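Reviewers of the previous submission asked for a worked example of the structure-prediction workflow described in the proposal, so we include one complete record here. The input consisted solely of the amino acid sequence. No template or homolog information was supplied to the procedure at any stage.
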Amino acid sequence: MGTIYRGGSRGALAGLRRPHLHPVPSVADRLNAERHELAGAACTAADPEVFFDGTQDATDVAKRICGGCPVRARCLWLALEHGEAFGIFGGLTADERRRLRRKGVSAA
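From that input alone, the workflow returned the following structure tokens.
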């Protein structure tokens, strides 16, 4: 249910009944849900910089960490769904994920 602007004293809320009963999920809510889905990920004990460093040594370490991760597939799916442009997710670099998308692989 969206807002309808009709002018007047109620402005943008005109036509929207009881807006407090229709909360919009916040970005924080979405991130918390994703964190729950990725509970037990191997990367939680690692330095996050390793996954975003970009050097070959850091990439090798990050991929090794991802290699034994129990939620690797879900992590990759989320990265594809959200179009993550940087970092290692699901054991793949941003370039590797772009190649997957070009081949027609999607999160859906």
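The chain has one domain: 25-102. We consider this example representative of the routine output the project will generate in years two and three.
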